[in-house]
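User: structure tokens for this one?
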Amino acid sequence: MPTVKAFDAYIANPERASEIAAPAYDALTPRERHRFAEAHPTNYLNVIRSVEEFPPEERPAFEELLRANVQRLHEMLETGLLLYNPQPGYYVYRLAIDAHVQVGVVAEVPVQSYEQGLVKRHENTQTEKEEQLARYLKAVRAGSSPVCLAYPHQPDIDALVSQAMRAKPLIDFVADDGLAQTVWFVDDDRMVRELTERLSAVPAFYLTDGHHRAAAASRYAARRRAGNPQHTGHEAYNYLLAALFPDNQLRILDYNRCVRGLNGHSARDLLAALERPFVVEALDVAAPEQARPRRRHEMAMHLDGCWYRLTARPEILPRYDPVHSLDLMLLQEHVLEPTLGIVDPRSDTRIDYVPGPFGLDGLEGRCRDGWDLAFAVYPTSIRELMEVADTHQTMPPKSTWFDPKVRSGLFVRLR
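Assistant:
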């Protein structure tokens, strides 16, 4: 079983938390992140900047940018934007947007739990990106973007979290994108002990967001251990900053695809080819959202200004296979690869990914902008994710879009 522990940390100044907490990193393009950081100098996004954000003529060397990130972090510490709380404890973290609410516990989880498979993953990672993030940790020496972990919901943990929320919150604000964020600090000895016991009794955690950050933290910890003759295992670099959420509170949106070119097929030939694995139905919709898939194994396709419903035929559905029964795997194995020639969706430039928040309107917009095809899928469920992770397999790239996303800069743990 993985263990969790309370921790001391720097916390966003409660009076200025709304200007410090970074927007969802992956929801912005590099250009949007650049504009936002330049326009908001007190936002934590300035500490986690990447080279790709800058125009080619202004692009700094990676080491130069790391020095700038370090300098900005020190400025935030020195000017009181980040305040040190020396008391070890947990932070109850509520995110609410529209009608959705999820409440988690921010804690530290041993990197060793990740390395031993007690923090289960469902995605492959890129070595180059892992190394880049590990170099960032070496330079900045701070964990500030909690990885998101799910666990099978437990009524006793829910009760402890609800009890903590009766107190006055430490931080409470609504971000510009409408996400309400509230934080309660838990340092009562009994509450800390019970949360530690209950959360550490969970058989496993499931990594839902932050695969590269977790892998980078493992690399960084290994290097720090190797270079520290007095290593004890209790140093901060041995732990991951994590936000732990019960599985029944997490919301997964669809993660859709658009494709450039029909691989030499005419539209008529493409539709005929799709009739073999799918029941294909032309849709007469007044708005794109009316074409949204209604259930698992149902997809929507936009082609030549029209929407089509694709329903998987029973004979293509594998039994007892958590990966190959995923809708995105059905799309890959029965459409993208055999018909459109996209063998490796990670590297093929003919495919791009459109997160759920952009909606089916966003997919139509891509087609107006020059993409030829768009596919909308039914969202992957948390249960499907757990089944894949439990069998030590991986999902296709860009299978899940968790929303809302945990934000950077509210909790900063120096390492």
